[in-house]
Design a protein that fits this description.
Number of domains: 2
Strand content: 15-25%
CATH topology of the largest domain: Rossmann fold
CATH superfamily of the largest domain: von Willebrand factor, type A domain
Helix content: 25-40%
Order of helices and strands: EHHHEEEHEEHHEHEEEEEHEHEEH
Shape: elongated
CATH class of the largest domain: Alpha Beta
């Protein structure tokens, strides 16, 4: 058995709180009855109240909450396997991990915002094979896959300090992305749409990105560029081992280094490959525009995959929960007349 929504099981933590609340309620009622005065009179007044019935009613409510919590987690079992095909394209995301991406002109930083928006983009895809090229002065790659959870895990904790060489080599990133796409072509589906999504502030050092864009154009690969950051420039923060800002990057002459968006270069890369350029700033990232642009690319069927379909069994929990609620509502807290205790019953019986 598995749960499609396991986070809902956290609601089970409320059950001890419910039991405690009922216990405190019973104790509070007992104290109030004791303060009324004459014990014999109070016992006579509360003789018709059944404590076991009150406990049973409380137990019914707690059991109902437990069943509903498990039902919300959507338990699944059994199931059957089937062959599934999905239509998609090949996409390589080239994400800039240079130190300039730590600038905070886009909240919380250029890099963290890019990661969040990419996760939103992946959530809207289906059937597309997605690879990743993380780059600074050199590149790190993750091969194309339809397992988007694995893709997110690859870049989630990655930072500029994990890159082997500093700098911003956009040309190398494009070449690394093309290598992934060409490798997919060798496996078939040559008519499948292919694209590179480049997210960077655009300040390339010496890797000749325009020549790399021309090579992508010859291969029929379109490059969509997302320029992240302000056009005016932003200081680059430095961090200590605890992740606190200790200052800002300076050059060899002691002057503060600012990073500004190289919009013209990124727009030219997109133009040469028949792609599009998008500007992401503090107010708007443009992931919706990227989704629209990718939607215009040709999609073909993926290789057949075995997909397991599970049977939903949460409905089996809803009927018992409903019956328990009806039973709680119909159960009276009063004893039958024949079972009523003598007028001299103790105060505790009224709880």
């Amino acid at each position: 058995m598995r749960f499609a929504n396991p986070h809902a099981l956290m609601l089970l933590l409320a059950l001890p709180a419910a039991v405690l609340a009922y216990g405190l309620g019973f104790a509070s009622r007992r104290r109030r009855l004791a303060r009324l005065g004459d014990e014999r009179l109070v016992g006579k007044m509360s003789a018709t109240v059944s404590v076991p019935r009150k406990v049973v009613r409380a137990a019914l409510v707690v059991l109902t909450l437990a069943l509903l919590s498990v039902a919300l987690a959507r338990p699944q079992a059994g199931g059957r396997a089937r062959v599934a095909k999905q239509r998609g394209l090949d996409l390589v995301v080239a994400l800039d991990f240079s130190r300039s991406m730590l600038a905070k002109d886009v909240y919380p930083s250029r890099l963290e915002r890019a990661k969040r928006e990419l996760e939103q983009l992946l959530d809207g895809l289906g059937g597309d094979r997605v690879g990743v090229v993380a780059f600074a002065g050199e590149t790190l790659g993750y091969p194309p896959t339809t397992d988007y959870a694995a893709v997110k895990l690859f870049w989630r904790d990655l930072g500029p300090w994990d890159m082997p060489v500093g700098g911003t080599a956009i040309g190398r990133a494009i070449h690394a992305a093309l290598d992934q796409l060409v490798a997919l072509r060798s496996k078939g589906a040559s008519s499948r749409g292919q694209a590179i999504l480049l997210l960077t502030d655009g300040e390339d050092t010496d890797s000749e990105p325009l020549e790399a864009a021309d090579e992508a154009s010859k291969l029929g690969v379109r490059i969509f560029t997302v320029g992240i950051g302000s056009r005016s420039g932003e200081l680059i923060p430095e961090y200590d081992e605890q992740g606190k800002v200790t200052g800002y990057v300076k050059d060899a002459d002691g002057h503060y280094v600012t990073s500004r968006l190289a919009e013209e270069s990124l727009a030219e890369i997109a133009r040469r490959t028949n792609g599009e350029f998008f500007h992401a700033d503090a107010k708007r990232f443009g992931v919706e525009d990227v989704q629209r642009a990718l939607g215009s690319l040709k999609r073909t069927e993926n290789e057949a995959r075995i997909v397991r379909q599970y049977d939903e069994i949460y409905e089996a929990l809803l009927l018992p929960a409903f019956l328990l609620l009806i039973g709680e509502a119909c159960m009276s807290e009063r004893r039958r007349r024949a079972a009523v205790a003598a007028p001299g019953a103790s105060v505790g019986a009224g709880t």
